[in-house]
From TrEMBL:
Keywords tagged on the record: DNA-binding
Name the record gives this protein: Putative DNA-binding ribbon-helix-helix protein
One of the Pfam families matching this protein, by short name: RHH_4
All residue ranges annotated as the Ribbon-helix-helix domain in the record: 13-76
Signal sequence bounds: none
Claim: DNA-binding is one of the keywords in the record: yes
Membrane-crossing segments per the record: none
Gene3D superfamilies with a match to the protein in the record: protein bp1543
Length: 88
């Protein structure tokens, strides 16, 4: 018998406009990813737009921007979970 699990609240992707290298583009991400990107940028002392531009410039050409942003957020959250607790 498998354990029951609870899915998180889900929403459709939200499209937002961003400027990358002086060009406007739209990116569709689920709201939790937008929130995490904003928090990550704040921790880094950057704007969300700056962080998105950095990710855009480093992503492989065959990977879409929305995918790159989601994978970046996932990677950052995994690093945070793996980091030792500074209180220890």
């Amino acid at each position: 018998m498998t354990e029951a699990f609870v899915l998180p609240a889900m929403s459709a992707p939200v499209k937002r406009s961003v400027t990358i290298g002086g060009h406007r583009t739209s990116v569709s991400l689920e709201e939790p990813f937008w929130r995490e990107l904003k928090l990550i940028a704040r921790r880094r002392g950057e704007t969300t737009a700056t962080l998105i531009a950095q990710i855009d410039h480093r992503r492989p050409a065959d990977v879409g921007l929305a995918t790159a942003l989601r994978l970046y957020v996932l990677s950052e959250l995994r690093q945070m979970l793996a980091a030792p607790d500074p209180a220890d």
